[in-house]
Amino acid sequence: MIKNVIKQIDMVATSDPTRIVYNNLGETNTYQQLKEKSDALASHIIELDLDKKSPIMVYGNQKFEMLVAFMGSVKAGHAYIPIDSHSPAERLEEIQNIAKPAACIAIAELPEIELSVPVISHTKLVEIIENGQGTVAPDPSLQVQGNDNFYIIFTSGTTGQPKGVQISHDNLISYVNWMIDDFSLPERPNILSQAPYSFDLSVMDVYPALTMGGQLSVLPQEVTDNFKVLFQTLPTLDLQVWVSTPSFMDICLLEPTFDADHLPDLSRFLFCGEELTHKTASALKKRFPMAKIFNTYGPTEATVAVSSVEITNDILEAYPRLPIGYSKADTKMTVVNSKNEVVPNGDEGELIIIGPSVSKGYINNPDKTASAFFEMDGGNAYRTGDAATISSDGMLLYRGRIDFQVKLHGYRIELEEVDHHVSSAPYVKQAITIPKYDKDHKVSQLIAYVVQKEHPFDRDIELTAAIKKDMAETTMSYMIPQKFVYVDALPLTQNGKIDRKKLINEVNA
Amino acid sequence: MNTKDKVLEILENTTDSAEVRNNLDINIFDEGLLDSMGSIQLILELQNELGIDIPISEFERSEWATPNLIIAKVESMI
C-alpha cells in the first residue's frame, strides 16, 4: 500500500533513474528528469514565498512540462489547478476569481488576458529548471500531505460559474491504492494518456502510471483529431493499459485493425467519464477476447472513480444495460430517497458516496459545498445527483440524473450553465438547452431552443453562426450546443418556469 | 441533386453553420465548426447518403478541411 504519492514517484527516480516516464510521440523523458526538474521548480516556488494555502494554476496541453509543473507545485506545498490550453480567456479569469491562486505556470501561451498573479512562462520555466539543476531537493516537510489539497479541478456549475473540486493528498492516496490493487494492472504499466489534464479522467492514467513506475504514452489532441495519424500512431505505442471515455473507444472501433492481432500487448481497458454501453463493450470484447475490460463510475468530487466491474461475457449476457459495479473496499455507496432515508435494495433513489476519497468540497464556495457534501456514518459523504439502484450483493445500476446535468462525450455539463451562456449571447432573448439522447441513453448532442431578439440576418443559420461565435469567447467549446432551434416562445410549467422536461420529451420522442 | 449540393447539405447539417455554403474554402476544423465526433458524423453521413466507403484510417484531416476539398474528395470516390 502506498502512503505518499510524491515519495513513491521520487523513489522510482532513485531506484531506476533512466526509466521512461513520459513518451510523447517518441520524445521521451525519464523519472530522473521528472524529479530533478520538479525539485528545481519547487525550490523556486518556495523562494517566491507565496501564500501556502493558495493553489497554482497550470495552463497547457499534453506536455512533459505539465507533469513537472504539477509535481513542482505539490512539492512546494501548493495544490495545482490544471487548465486546458483550449480554454477561453474568460474561463481563466473566472477560475482566477474563484480560486484566488498564488501564481500561474503557463506551459502554453496564455490568451490575451490580464492575470493579477505572477505568471511563470514556458521560457521562464526552462530557465528556472536549468539554473536549478543539481540543487538539493526541497524540504519534504513543505510538501502537500494529508488533508492538504493536491489538485483542484473545475467542473460545470449550474449558475454559470464553474466549481473547483478540491482533492486532497489523502483523497488521491485512497484512489491510487484502489487502482493498484483492484485492476490487475501489469507491473510498470505502459498506459495510454489521452484525456486532457483538466479532465479528471487523466488522473486515471497519470497517477497509477507514476506510482507504479510505469510509462505514460501520450496521444495529443492533434493526433486523436486526425484519424489517419491516430491509427498510424496507435500500434507504435506498445500500450498495455487503455484509459479513455467510451466515446473515444467508439471512434477507435470504426477501424477494423483495432484489435488484439494488431495491438497484442493491450490487455486492460478502463472506462470512465460517461456510460459504457453494451454495444461498445461487446464490440470491444470481440476485438480483444483475452483482455480485461473494466467499467468504472465516479464523480470528480469523489476522486475520479469509486466503483468498478469487469465486463465479462457473463456480465454482457446478464445485463442489457451495463452495471457500474461494486464500490471500492474503503468506500460505502448507498441509495437514499428524497427524505435522505436509505431505501431497500432494488429500489431507486439518489446515490450517496461515503469514504476517504470524497472531497472536502468546492473551493471558496460554502453554499454549493453545504448542499452537496455532508457527514454520514462518521465519513465524508457526497450527494451524486445520480439515480441508481443497488442489488443485494452490492452491484450498482445507474438510472440517469435526478437533475439537469449531462455527460457529452465524457464532458460533464450542467444544462443551466449552457442556458446562461446562450442567454447572454447577442440577439438572444431567452434560451434553454435540451439534450438529445441516442438509443443507448447517451447524449448525442445539445440543442438550444432560442427566442430571438431583433437581428440583421436573413437566415437562421447565419444567426446561429453569430451566436456561436460570441459564445466561443466565453464558453468551453464542448458546452456550445450543436444545434439551434428558433421559436416564438418557450413552453412554461404551471409555476411559470421554462418547461425543460416537456421539451426533452418532445426532442426525444 | 448533384454531388456538390448533397455534400454541402450534409456539411451544413453536421456543422449547423451557413459558412460552409458561403465560403467553400473555409477551414472547418480551424474555425471550430467540426470536432472529432463531428468528423465521425460527417463520415457516416457521407457514406450513408452517397453510398461511398471512407475508411477511417485514410481520413487525413488536411485532405478534408474545406468544403471544396471534401467535394473533390467525394467526387473522386463515386
Strand and helix map with partners:
The complex is a heterodimer of chains A (509) and B (78).
Chain A: H1 5-15, E1 20-24, E2 27-30, H2 31-48, E3 56-60, H3 64-75, E4 80-84, H4 89-99, E5 103-106, E6 119-121, H5 122-131, E7 149-155, E8 163-168, H6 169-182, E9 190-193, H7 203-211, E10 215-218, H8 221-225, H9 227-233, E11 241-244, H10 246-253, E12 268-271, H11 278-287, E13 292-297, E14 307-310, H12 313-318, E15 326-327, E16 332-336, E17 349-354, H13 366-372, E18 373-376, E19 379-390, E20 396-401, E21 405-408, E22 411-414, H14 415-424, E23 428-437, E24 443-452, H15 460-472, E25 483-486, H16 500-507
Helix pairs in contact in A: 1-2, 2-3, 2-5, 6-7
Chain B: H1 3-15, H2 19-22, H3 36-50, H4 67-77
Helix pairs in contact in B: 1-3, 1-4
Keywords (chain A): ATP-binding, Cytoplasm, Ligase, Nucleotide-binding
EC number (chain A): 6.2.1.54
GO molecular function, one term (chain A): D-alanine [D-alanyl carrier protein] ligase activity
Summarize the model shown.
By secondary structure, chain A is an alpha/beta fold. Chain A has 16 helices and 25 strands. Among the domains of chain A are: 167 residues, Rossmann fold, CATH 3.40.50.12780; 71 residues, Luciferase, Domain 3 (Luciferase, domain 3), CATH 2.30.38; 103 residues, GMP Synthetase, Chain A, domain 3.
Describe the overall structure.
The complex is a heterodimer of chains A (509) and B (78). Among the domains of chain A are: 1-167, 3-Layer(aba) Sandwich (Rossmann fold); 331-401, Luciferase, domain 3, CATH 2.30.38; 405-507, ANL, C-terminal domain (GMP Synthetase, Chain A, domain 3, 2-Layer Sandwich), CATH 3.30.300.30. In chain A, a hairpin with a 2-residue loop joins strand 1 (20-24) and strand 2. In chain A, the strands form 7 sheets. Chain A has a 5-stranded mixed beta sheet with strand order 11-12-13-14-15. In chain A, strands 16, 17, 18, 19 and 20 form a 5-stranded antiparallel beta sheet that branches. Chain A is 31% helix and 26% strand. In chain A, helix 6 crosses helix 7 (203-211). Chain B is an all-alpha fold. Chain B has one domain: ACP-like (Non-ribosomal Peptide Synthetase Peptidyl Carrier Protein, Chain A). Helices cover 55% and strands 0% of the residues of chain B. Chain B has 4 helices and no strands. In chain B, helix 1 (3-15) runs antiparallel to helix 3 and helix 1 (3-15) crosses helix 4 (67-77). Chain B starts with a helix and ends with a helix.
